[in-house]
Amino acid sequence: MKRIKFLALALGMVIASGSMVSAQKIGTADLDALIANLPEFQGKQQQLQQFYQDSIGGEYEQLYKEFVDKDSAMKKATSPSVKATLEKEVGTLQRTLQGWQDYATQRNQAKQAELFGPLVKKAQDALNAVAKEKGYTYVLQPGAFLVMPPADDLTMAIAEKLGIKPAGAPGAAPAGGAPKPAAKPAAKK
Hints:
The chain contains six helices and two strands. It is elongated and about 90 Å long. With 189 residues, it is mostly helical. Helix 3 runs antiparallel to helix 5. It has a two-stranded parallel sheet. The protein has helices at residues 2-20, 31-36, 41-76, 80-98, 100-134, 155-162, and strands spanning 26-28, 138-140. Residues 168-189 are annotated as: Disordered. Belongs to the Skp family. One of its GO terms (biological process) is protein stabilization.
């Protein structure tokens, strides 16, 4: 008898908890493709490359030249106090050059955040608006699912909200630029 009451109570709790759960809509969106198709993206890419060449690359060359100059001067120095000072400076420059990759990566990531942050925010705001309009609770990258109904892909709706046509959309230019003309069939002999 106790067992029947326990099973009835457990069944009632399962039924009650099931009615409390609301349906969750899950969709996908390829924000990376959307951001890459924003008109201002190419300009930001060029600015980032220019920053690397002008700032980070130039700084490295300057530090390396300073290291070589001070190393040469240290080897030629005759005064013990000058030699000790140069040894200390050369050691500092050597550690700086060894840690350069980490430093350059951090500077590059900071510049990326500065340049691309507004584009990411613009795409994210559009995604949030479309998800809310269509009643989606969760939106993930397309690669997160092995199978997903095409109707749950919000990429095109977000692109429309952003005023762009992502690659692969009807009427969109291919990623390589202008569409290529179709090849003519070979003449038969």
